[in-house]
């Protein structure tokens, strides 16, 4: 049948010379057997449409040929776990560096939203390049026979009992770390950016009141230790007694700082020499409400973190 011959010729075109003859003979016999069975069941010859349907069930010649070819996976099963972890770590590290380097200029610009979108698409572009480079590296490692013992080397004596309930996402923790570092940078005036607002077509400069100096060092110490704690969690890839205990202590101290801030008489100063008749009393309650809402959200997040950490600490007691 011409249709079968055309199918087999196409199949051969996707195979190396060493396999063409054997694979063609195997499929030729299989296809004719299926055609004969179908014809016997129908007690007549198959129409062209019925022949085509049987060949469609077998599959595209290129797909069929792939079953006989080596290296049909870009990254093999033995290399894939290490490839996945390497890709995750590479994206975390490069994203963190890129964001930390770019955000000061984004925040100091008058076009924060526009520059934010530019940074976002820059991260997308970077992610694609990271994916390409890591994939190529692992592809070459596998094709050139890189010894897996170097990739998965470990000491059985150093392995620790792990609890799946104590695992964490390095990616999420890395983003938490990034925002902690950015806030510390802003808190210590490392970014040349101050919030401004419009009032009666006049630009207002908004700054924190001197009362905030009372919590300047306590905020630095708490967030600095939180940064160190986050780095340890990223390295370990899980929680332990130390990171959980430190996290609880820092959250409890944060409650005290939040309470201290809530006692301030005024949160921000608005300065502009052109506004001699500026009525501070109209805008002060709005700012106070917004700041108090932020403090409440931070308090709730810290409280939830304490509860979650205490629950995780119980798992260590269960394992004793």
Describe the SSE topology.
Layout: H1 2-13, H2 17-42, H3 48-58, H4 61-66, H5 80-107, H6 112-143, H7 148-151, H8 170-187, E1 196-199, E2 202-208, H9 216-236, H10 241-262, E3 268-271, H11 280-319
Antiparallel strand pairs: 1-2, 2-3
Helix pairs in contact: 1-2, 5-6, 5-8, 8-9, 9-10, 10-11
Short overview:
By secondary structure, the protein is mainly alpha-helical.
Average predicted local confidence, pLDDT: 79
SSE ordering? HHHHHHHHEEHHEH
Number of strand elements? 3
Number of domains: 3
N-to-C span? 74 Å
The residue ranges in which pLDDT falls below 50 over 5 or more consecutive positions are 191-201
Measured as a percent range, the helix fraction is 55-70%
Number of helices: 11
**Rg from Cα:** 32 Å
Give the amount of beta strand, in percent: under 5%
Shape: elongated
Subunit organisation of the chains? single chain
Strand arrangement across the biggest beta sheet: 1-2-3
Structural class: mainly alpha
Instruction: Please describe the biggest sheet, giving its number of strands, its sense, and whether it closes into a barrel.
Output: 3 strands, antiparallel
Key structural traits:
mainly alpha; three-stranded antiparallel sheet; single chain; 3 domains; 5% strand
Notes on the protein architecture:
It is a single chain. The chain is mainly alpha-helical and 320 residues long. It folds into three domains: 65 residues, no CATH class; 87 residues, no CATH class; 160 residues, no CATH class. A three-stranded antiparallel β-sheet has the order 1-2-3, with helices on one face. Helix 1 runs antiparallel to helix 2, helix 5 runs parallel beside helix 8 and helix 10 packs antiparallel against helix 11. It has eleven helices and three strands.
């Amino acid at each position: 049948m011409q249709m079968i011959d055309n199918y087999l010729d196409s199949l051969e075109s996707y195979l190396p010379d060493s396999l063409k003859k054997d694979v063609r003979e195997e499929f030729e016999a299989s296809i004719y057997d299926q055609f004969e069975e179908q014809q016997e069941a129908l007690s007549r010859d198959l129409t062209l449409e019925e022949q085509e349907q049987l060949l469609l069930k077998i599959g595209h010649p290129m797909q069929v040929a792939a079953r006989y070819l080596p290296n049909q996976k870009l990254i093999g099963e033995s290399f894939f776990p290490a490839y996945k972890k390497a890709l995750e770590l590479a994206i975390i590290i490069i994203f963190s560096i890129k964001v930390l380097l770019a955000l000061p200029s984004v925040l100091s610009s008058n076009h924060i939203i526009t520059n934010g979108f530019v940074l976002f698409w820059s991260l997308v572009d970077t992610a694609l390049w990271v994916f390409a480079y890591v994939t190529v590296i692992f592809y070459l490692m596998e094709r050139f026979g890189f010894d897996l013992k170097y990739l998965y080397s470990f000491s059985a004596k150093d392995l620790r009992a792990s609890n799946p309930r104590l695992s964490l996402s390095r990616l999420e923790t890395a983003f938490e770390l990034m925002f902690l570092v950015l806030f510390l940078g802003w808190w210590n005036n490392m970014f040349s950016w101050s919030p401004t607002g419009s009032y009666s077509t006049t630009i207002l400069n908004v700054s924190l009141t001197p009362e905030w100096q009372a919590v300047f060092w306590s905020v630095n110490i708490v967030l600095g230790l939180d940064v160190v704690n986050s780095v340890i969690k990223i390295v370990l890839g899980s929680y332990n007694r130390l990171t959980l205990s430190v996290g609880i202590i820092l959250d409890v101290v944060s409650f005290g700082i939040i309470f201290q801030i809530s006692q301030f008489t005024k949160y921000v100063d608005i300065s502009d020499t052109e506004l001699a008749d500026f009525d501070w009393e109209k805008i002060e309650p709005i700012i106070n409400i917004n700041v108090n809402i932020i403090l409440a959200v931070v308090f709730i997040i810290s409280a939830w973190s304490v509860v979650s950490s205490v629950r995780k600490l119980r798992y260590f007691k269960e394992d004793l």
